[in-house]
Amino acid sequence: MDEPVSPFDVALSRRGLIALAAGAPLLVVGLAAVAHAEEAPAICVDLDTLPASQKGMRRSIGFRLHSPDPKKHCSLCTFFTGAAAGCGKCQLLSGGSVAATSLCDSFAARA
Ligand code: SF4
């Protein structure tokens, strides 16, 4: 036979369900934010505010903020020097900032 359930147990159980129901969406949003943060490339440079010389150099080498090829991006390039997390400097851009995930037509794989 089942044991009798006290009103306290029922209230606790309801509270637990309500708390779980209220917390579940927050957990999902939190996990999605963490996943998105891992995928989002670092923002190392604001292309709109660069000096004209940097804009011209970037245009001439076909600079793209985000590489479409996971095997070719700045952090794998011989001209890249790492700096802050996800960011670095490019020798071809006179030390201009690039994201590790950026790419240009002058990419040269590190030996
Ligand atoms: S040469 Fe191009 S791919 Fe290499 S670090 Fe500079 S911008 Fe990135």
UniProtKB/TrEMBL annotation:
For this protein, the record's Pfam families field holds: HIPIP
Q: What residues does the High potential iron-sulfur proteins family profile domain cover?
A: 45-111
Residues of the signal sequence? none
Q: Which InterPro entries match?
A: High_potential_FeS_prot, HIPIP_sf, TAT_signal
Is Metal-binding a UniProt keyword of this protein? yes
| Protein keywords | 4Fe-4S, Electron transport, Iron, Iron-sulfur, Metal-binding, Transport
Instruction: Describe the task this protein carries out.
Output: Specific class of high-redox-potential 4Fe-4S ferredoxins. Functions in anaerobic electron transport in most purple and in some other photosynthetic bacteria and in at least one genus (Paracoccus) of halophilic, denitrifying bacteria.
Give the family per the record: Belongs to the high-potential iron-sulfur protein (HiPIP) family.
Give the multimer and partner information: Homodimer.
Q: What is this protein called?
A: High-potential iron-sulfur protein
